[in-house]
Design brief:
alpha+beta; 9-stranded mixed sheet; 72 strands; disordered C terminus
Length: about 1400
């Protein structure tokens, strides 16, 4: 929780931060993730259009975090300012931090002269008003404080590195130099581990901390990604798992399922650092590793230094032994900081004897100094105790010299303070905040601070009295304090008593309201542990069932992507109260871990959470539905459920498509490694459309990245991967291209070495057009081949050590037509010219680079009258385009001649050289034929499947040397290429222009239906009679009655036909289709109209249609289809032309802006804009009466041309249009009345103004009845005039939305009866009110096409598109009743519901998904806040 003084500082500078910081650039500069923002938080902040709103949202996050986060924020701003970023014009980070330090009491604050100098150097004009405060208040407070010391977390380099007091410790030069030298080496190396071991209290931690600070701050090492200090100590596996989870969150490690054990979290971290290689440069410090098995879980860190009391099994670590004791001079240097030189000289002999008895241990010497012995008899008494180990002093501890010394030091305290200090042994081995100490001791803060300062002076603990006051105990001291003071009492009973005192103190502090205790960083994290140790089972049961306690814990843990162990126990207890069994509880925890951000921690309704986040149609959702029904009947609760999902863009008419790979538009086709050599990997590009292009290698099974390399603005045109997936090749550029080869595991680039026959070698660049890896390993070597630009030389290369050397070379006098490796083989297939009419096909085995066999095939063939194919010498006949070699189950050549694919085979195929041109009519067997050219063919690794790509995708299956069956791959998108994935019968389909450019079809799936081929060839001369190539052209939705309906216009490009698809029901499972006789421009559904309306705007040039020959015209055609439920083809179809509208010759197109159905007079209303070739626009309004077909239209014929026509508001009677008039350089707002059956559409009033001159608009009394309505407009320049024009309330309302604050120049106030609504010129709602009840909406939802959402009788519905939430407010009180927040609803855009407001359809803006939301049970009207 943020300290109050820091919160005060933030509020003081609130406007300066909100207006003066560019958060987008600050986040981009945060390479070390000091802000600890998750990806979804960054995306949410980036989604805000207004800089101020983005900063305000971040300030909310800042106020909800802790002090450490605030100082990290300040540190990041200081870093950016020091780097001279032009947009960071003042050192706000320094100012905020110094204000916070002064407010906390002046410790570690900058001096008055320095802060005034800092203030005077501020260049940002808006901070001038704070100079006086800085010069007065800071002068007073800072002058009395200590001199300024720079924070040890300078620029985020040192994270949690402990500060070492010069008073208690000295610099051990020899040990420090050893550690420093190893750290310097580690800074230069790619990886390495250091282990420092020594006895407890020997100063390992101090020496490592000093060395790390010195090498970072003085030697400028590890600056890029800094140091992470992690305290391990004597902890169990659950506690270590918690530590590593927290580390993963700070590093933004992502996971599909939260790690449940140390092995899983270690694997996640290893995978993270394997592909984030730059972050692998972080130096980790693991302090005090006591359990040897933990070393294995920490190997994810490429660079680390660890301390330990014992020498663990560490074969790869560089070992540094810490001297067990200080030298005499080092020990004396420490004591000089506690005693005067005279005192040390007077008692030197006794002091040296005491140091010898204490074995010169660093910790013992510090405690010895803290004893502050002044008299000779005190030193003699200490020597006696250390020498004889007096039985009176031996009762506590293990008898070691440190424990004896601790015991002696504690006995020198007053009796009450002795008990208080021993009570500190109850706490865990972490930083203990002063609030928890106050609760334990039951003292006020001032008294507690005085005692802690005294204990710190005596070196019994380390107390930090700064921003957040806390103390730290040495682990050896903690071990001592946990021994019982009464030898007759067991250790367990003693600790139980300590924990009971602590729990009692917490209870007294918060007066039994456990959730009200301040978040001091310890209480909420460890209270359950202490209650368990206190064995207070009644309190434990109460707390785990307390919803207030759980809500507060959720607030604290809400930024984590996993649930803490204590919080999981809380949730299980709450789940039992909500009637969940154990199986549901565990499933609930799994879903909560994944979708924690969707859980409403204020309501703590776990059943509702499962209804929103459970997998579609899963058992968990079904059981949650049953529980919800029980709760409705028992508690009169109301639950909301998402019953149906539908995605227009993913209608699949084929069962072959199995999944889509995670790459983006314009990325190149991936390549896969051979799974026979380990886990399969794939290489692909990312962000090919941007300037930060990457090449990535991912595990195919898990999708986890293991390698990435940036290429910035350089274009990636091709990628290849070796058979074992350990090497990749990237082709950079197109015409002037270069191949670069990388080691995936190490990230290193390999160099090409060209060797000559005379023994000379030189480094070269691989600027060749083609590179292919051998699909298998040859003698455990990676081999690939390249070809030159002239296509006459083939070179093979092999990878040796860290370089690439040339191996063999093949040269041809003729150009090589085709060169490639045979699938899953070490042979190379070469196709070159033999003579004018023949090609020579050669196979070479690269294992020994020897000739294998050859074939002669014709260049051109033609089909004879009897269906046989013969050799042709005419260039216009079928030409050989592709050739493939099969030799697994059978030996054959697969050849593609334009639109024919066939197999060359021979009874004596095993001969080394075969001439197929001698008897081609018998040796060439056609297997596939179509009426369009073959674009590409490919063969699977087992040589049993042949992929053929033409205007459709067909896969032929070969059995016993013959084509056996086929299957057609039907996908929604056009494709550019296809390729079989290595080691499988999966086919990758590729189109770089699609949102998902690569799709993966599993042909081995049981769902793949193979169609037998009775007599080859398979001949497909026209598109098959199937639903392929169906494209959703237009779509609309509505709730007709209480039934959700979606209507899609589908275009079948192959058949040139148009289909109307209708889906009904809560799960959209009732489907019907209708073939249409023509295409249509739009489709409309209306909530209160049972017809589907199709609109066609037909541009016509015929003179006979209108009298004026000089004008073109549009025929407006409407078709109405009434779908009768239960009969898939029973529809009443009314098609008629409603109007012919003459237009100017330069009309480009008509666009429909909005459409409505007015129920009371059965009228369809269409609002269109006419777009001209010169980009100007005009408004067109049409209304047609359904029964009579009579049509009235209004065409804006004003002389002023306009642009950017937008509908601000539209209901059954009123239309408000916003447009820019180019001819008069003015913005216009026009108010139209839409007329009735007796009146026509007309322009009621209009206003023209300059929108950049501070104008504000108020649309008043849009009453929704047939007459009335008013539009008024005024400027904001004169506030008194504004009050006079609108009244005080409305004027103040406008003042809240000042242009400087919201970056908008126009606002509209719509009033309807007792309700008001404020919207901006984008059509976004800013405010909604009913009488005096007002709701301000900072996320700016749209009012949608159906403005009825704004004036409903029960709910006001608002969609938060930024956070993907749908809010339901009470229509009168404006109180939030319910929020729909589900991972199944992404990018919600518009929502429509039935009249009872119990069922809704929500439409997704980006992926065109639909979902049905409904209230599970009960009357809506009974819902209460």
């Amino acid at each position: 929780m943020l300290s109050q003084h820091i919160a005060t500082v933030i509020k003081k500078y609130y406007d300066k931060i909100a207006d003066g910081i560019d958060l987008r650039k600050l986040i981009a500069s945060d390479t070390a993730n000091q802000l600890s923002l998750f990806y979804d938080e960054v995306q949410e902040l980036q989604a805000f259009r207004s800089k101020r709103k983005r900063n305000v949202e971040f300030l909310k996050m800042l106020l909800s975090r802790d002090d450490e986060y605030f100082f990290q924020f300040c540190d990041l701003m200081r870093k950016v300012y020091s780097e001279g970023k032009g947009w960071m014009r003042y050192n706000m980070g320094e100012i905020l931090e110094q204000e916070a330090r002064i407010s906390s009491g002046g410790h570690n604050a900058i001096g008055g002269n320095e802060i005034c100098k800092l203030a005077q150097n501020v260049k940002f004009p808006q901070l001038d008003q704070y100079l006086y405060v800085i010069k007065t208040e800071i002068w007073k407070k800072a002058n009395s404080s200590e001199s300024y010391q720079s924070s040890q977390t300078v620029f985020g380099w040192l994270r949690n590195v402990p500060e070492i007091s010069q008073k208690r410790y000295v610099i051990r030069k020899n040990l420090l130099e050893k550690i420093r030298d190893q750290l310097l080496v580690l800074n230069e190396d790619l990886s390495g581990q250091i282990l420092v071991h020594g006895l407890p209290g020997s100063g390992k931690t101090v020496a490592v901390s000093q060395a790390v600070q010195q090498i970072v701050l003085q030697d400028a090492c590890f600056h890029r990604y800094g140091v992470y200090w992690i305290k391990i100590g004597d902890i169990n596996e659950i506690e270590l798992l918690e530590i590593l989870r927290n580390l993963a969150i700070k590093l933004r490690v992502t996971w599909d399922k939260p790690p449940k054990n140390l092995l899983e979290i270690s694997q996640y971290l290893q995978e993270f650092f394997s592909y984030n290689r730059k972050l692998g440069k972080i130096l980790f410090v693991f302090d005090d590793i006591r359990n040897q098995s933990y070393m294995g879980y920490l190997k994810f860190a490429r660079k680390f230094i660890a301390t330990s009391r014992t020498l663990h099994d560490s074969n790869n670590c560089r070992i540094i032994s810490s001297p067990d004791c200080l030298t005499q001079d080092e020990a004396m240097n420490i004591l000089t900081q506690y005693y005067s030189p005279k005192m040390l000289l007077d008692h030197r002999l006794l002091i040296e004897q005491a140091m010898t008895k204490c074995e010169n241990l660093p910790l013992a010497i510090s405690v010895l100094g803290g004893l502050k012995l002044k008299k000779t008899r005190d030193w003699q008494k200490l020597l006696y105790i250390l020498s004889t180990k007096d039985t009176d002093q031996k009762s506590i501890g293990d008898g070691s010299v440190l424990h004896i010394l601790f015991n002696f030091g504690i006995h020198r305290l007053d009796q009450p303070k002795q008990h208080l200090f021993r009570d500190l042994g109850v706490f865990k081995r972490v930083k203990i905040p002063i609030t928890s100490i106050m609760s334990l001791w039951k003292l006020n803060e001032l008294t507690a601070r005085q005692i802690l300062n005294e204990l710190s002076e005596r070196s019994l603990l380390k107390y930090v009295d700064r921003n957040r006051r806390y103390y730290v105990l040495d682990d050896t001291m903690v071990d001592y304090l946990q021994y019982p003071t009464n030898p007759d009492k067991s250790s367990q009973a003693y600790r139980r008593g300590l924990n009971r005192r602590l729990v009692e103190g917490y209870n007294q502090y918060c007066k039994g309201k456990w959730h009200t205790y301040p978040d001091d960083g310890y209480y909420y994290q460890h209270l359950i542990y202490h209650i368990q140790q206190a064995e207070n089972n009644d309190l434990l049961d109460f707390l785990l069932a307390d919803s207030n306690w759980i809500e507060t814990q959720f607030q604290i843990y809400k930024k984590k992507r996993y649930l803490s162990t204590e919080l999981q126990e809380n949730i299980r207890c709450l789940a039992r109260k909500q009637l969940m069994d154990k199986q549901m509880q565990e499933e609930l925890l799994n879903i909560l871990n994944r979708y924690q951000s969707y859980f409403d921690i204020k309501k703590l309704n776990l059943v509702q959470f499962l209804l929103y986040c459970g997998p579609k149609d899963s058992w968990i959702v079904n059981q949650a539905t049953e529980l919800a029904k029980q709760h409705c009947q028992r508690d009169d609760q109301h639950y909301w459920v998402i019953t149906g999902y539908y995605d227009c863009q993913k209608i699949q008419f084929s069962k072959n498509l199995s999944k889509e790979l995670d790459i983006e538009e314009e990325d190149i086709i991936p390549r896969w490694s051979n799974p026979n050599y380990g886990s399969q990997r794939r290489v692909h590009s990312k962000y090919s459309r941007d300037t930060d292009r990457l090449v990535c290698v991912t595990e195919s099974s898990t999708n986890h990245e293991i390698f990435r390399h940036p290429f910035a603005k350089r274009r990636i045109s091709e990628v290849q991967i070796s058979a074992n997936g350990k090497f990749i090749a990237c082709k950079i550029g197109f015409w002037q291209s270069e191949w670069k080869v990388y080691n995936v595991d190490s990230g290193e680039q390999l160099r090409f070495i060209l060797s000559y026959p005379n023994g000379n070698i030189r480094k070269v660049k691989c600027c060749l057009p083609s590179l292919q890896f051998c699909p298998i390993l040859v003698n455990d070597q990676i081999i690939f081949m390249t070809t030159d630009i002239n296509r006459r030389n083939i070179t093979t290369w092999k990878i040796e050590n860290k370089q690439i050397v040339n191996s063999s070379k093949y040269s041809s006098q003729e150009e090589i037509k085709q060169w490639e490796f045979v699938r899953n083989d070490s042979k190379i297939l070469l196709c070159r010219d033999l003579d004018e009419h023949k090609y020579q096909i050669e196979l070479w085995d690269i294992e020994n680079w020897r000739y294998h066999r050859s074939f002669q095939v014709p260049k051109w063939i033609e089909k004879r009258y009897d269906g046989k194919f013969i050799i042709s010498q005419r260039y216009s006949d079928l030409w050989l385009k592709y050739i493939k070699y099969l030799d697994k189950d059978c030996a054959a050549l697969v050849a593609s001649y334009d639109n024919v694919v066939g197999i060359f085979s021979d009874s004596a195929f095993e001969r080394i050289a075969i001439d197929f041109t001698q008897n081609i009519e018998n040796s060439f067997q056609p297997i596939f034929e179509c009426n369009k050219d073959i674009i590409n063919i490919d063969v699977s690794d087992d040589h049993r499947l042949i992929g053929i790509f033409c205007w459709l995708r067909n896969i032929l299956r070969i059995e016993a040397g013959h084509v056996d069956s086929y299957v057609s791959i039907n996908v929604m998108q056009d494709i550019h290429d296809l390729a079989f994935i290595a080691g499988s019968q999966r086919l990758a389909i590729y189109n770089p222009q699609c949102k998902y450019p690569v799709q993966d079809c599993n042909l081995a799936s049981h769902e793949t239906i193979w169609i037998p081929i009775t007599s080859p060839p398979l001949t497909l001369m026209s598109p098959p009679n199937s639903d392929t190539s169906h494209i959703i052209d237009k779509s609309d939705w509505a709730v007709i009655g209480d039934t959700p309906v979606i209507a899609n216009l589908i275009q079948n490009g192959r058949k040139c036909e148009y289909i109307l698809q209708i889906l009904r029901g809560e799960k959209f499972d009732q489907i019907s289709k209708h073939i249409l006789d023509r295409s249509y421009d739009r489709i409309f559904l209306y909530n209160n109209y049972e017809f589907i309306v199709l609109l066609r705007l037909n541009k016509c040039y015929k003179n006979i249609c209108i009298n004026d020959d000089s004008l073109i015209h549009y025929h407006v055609i409407i078709t109405q289809i009434k779908y009768v439920q239960g009969y898939s083809h029973a529809a009443i179809n009314h098609c008629r032309e409603i109007v012919v509208i003459p237009m100017r010759n330069d009309v480009n197109r008509l666009t429909v802006l909005q459409s409505r159905y007015r129920k009371w007079d059965q009228t369809l209303i269409f609002i269109l804009k006419i777009e001209y070739l010169d980009k100007n626009e005009k408004l067109l309004i049409m209304k047609t009466f359904v029964e009579t077909g009579e049509t009235d239209y209004y065409l804006d014929n004003s002389s002023n041309l306009c642009r950017n026509i937008k509908v601000i508001y539209c209901d059954d009677y009123n239309l408000i249009i916003h447009q820019y008039s180019a001819t008069i350089s003015m913005t216009s707002v026009k108010y139209y009345t839409l007329g009735t059956e007796r009146s026509k559409i007309k322009l009621f009033t209009e206003h023209h103004y300059d929108q950049w001159n501070g104008v504000r608009n108020n649309i008043n009394k849009i009453t929704g009845i047939k007459t009335g309505g008013n539009l008024k407009c005024s400027s904001f320049d004169d506030k008194s005039a504004l009050v006079k024009e609108w009244g005080l309330d409305d004027a103040n309302l406008f003042a809240e939305y000042h242009a400087d604050k919201y970056q908008c120049t126009e606002y509209f106030l719509i009033e309807k009866g007792k309700e008001k609504m404020m919207i901006n010129s984008y059509g976004e709602v800013l405010m909604k009110s009913y009488l005096e009840n007002m709701l301000h909406l900072d996320y700016e939802p749209d009012i949608f096409d159906n403005t009825e959402n704004a004036w409903q009788k029960k709910f006001f519905i608002a969609v938060d598109r930024i956070r993907s939430k749908i809010h339901y407010y009470h229509h009168e009180t404006m109180q939030l009743l319910h929020t729909v927040h589900s991972p199944n609803i992404k990018n919600p855009y518009k929502i429509k519901g039935n009249e009872q407001q119990s069922l809704y359809i929500c439409k997704d803006n980006k992926s065109h998904r639909y979902c049905v939301i409904k209230i599970l049970q009960g009357e809506v009207s009974t819902i209460k806040e």
